[in-house]
Amino acid sequence: MIHQDSRKLLEIRGLRATVSGIEILKGIDLTVRSGEIHAIMGTNGSGKSTLAKVLAGHNAYTVTAGSVVFEGNDLLGLEPEERARAGVFLAFQYPIEIPGVSNSHFLRLAYNTVQAQRGKDELDPLEFEDFVREKMKLLDMNPDFLDRGVNEGFSGGEKKRNEILQMALLEPRLAILDETDSGLDIDALRIVTTGVNKLATRDNAIILVTHYQRMLNYIVPDYVHVMQGGRIIKTGGKELALDLETRGYDWVGAERRSAIGA
Fold first, then answer.
1. I need a labelling partner for 48 at 20 to 30 A (CA). Which of 16, 23, 191, 221 fits?
2. Which domain of life is it from (predicted)?
3. What Rg do the C-alpha atoms of the chain give, in angstroms?
């Protein structure tokens, strides 16, 4: 939801990036303000997930041009862990398993690291146990998950809930959800999106990366952006996602080619 007093959190200008020498992002321009939800849609290979990973600082990608300013600071000059401490959060499309590291220990370390960065008190194990159990209620998660290895043996839906649990604990200024709806059945999608909606405030912003409109039945975006060929080629409101659901993506590219030809 857009608020009258919203201010810029993220400003991307002319962003270009390569992976293994191949240019994927070919000039991205995007402004995200506090209180906003942006959906980035497109077919496979359009550059959506690359954009998410570049913003998070994935070292497989090389930025060749452009700028990214987050809360007035150069985001590209920060290491991935510095971006996380600054308030940038990425929920992965394919969360990895970390055997031997308990979920509780992992979550508490992440939480206390961010708390220290913000000059706030850290929580000891007992305090954190009470705190995280309250957050787990947002996602209908069984407390037993705290004693298991990070994502170890989790179903796809459980992994995605664990990602949003991290978001609930870290309270990022900018949350980037990379195809969080991928692999979720209807019930899991409803639980995850309900949790995300509860975490959206006038002081943060969310970027949703998705192929399909179904996630947007639950999380209503302020803006929908269509990516194709490493660029954002069309921006609209939530109605644009409905058009994409019924008409596919080809018409957007055709419309753009016609406009350029004109």
1. 191
2. Bacteria
3. 18
- The count of domains in the chain is 1
Contact 154, 165 (CB under 8 A): no
Task: Check residue 171 and give left, alpha or beta (phi > 0: left; psi -120 to 50: alpha).
Answer: left
> Which pair of tokens denotes residue 117?
């960065």
Residue 170 is part of a domain; what is its CATH number? 3.40.50.300
State which amino acid sits at residue 62: T
* Statement: residue 249 has pLDDT above 90: no
**pLDDT at position 4, please?**
45
For residue 44, what are the CA distances in angstroms to 29, 109, 165, 211, 228?
20, 35, 27, 8, 9
Q: Residue 110: inside a domain, yes or no?
A: yes
| The model's pTM | 0.92
Distances (CA, A) of 242 to 10, 23, 36, 209, 229: 26, 30, 19, 16, 21
How many CB atoms are closer than 10 A to CB 204? 20
Q: What are the pLDDT digits (tens) for 150-191? A: 999 999 899 999 999 999 999 999 999 999 998 898 999 999
Residue ranges making up the domain that contains 24:
8-259
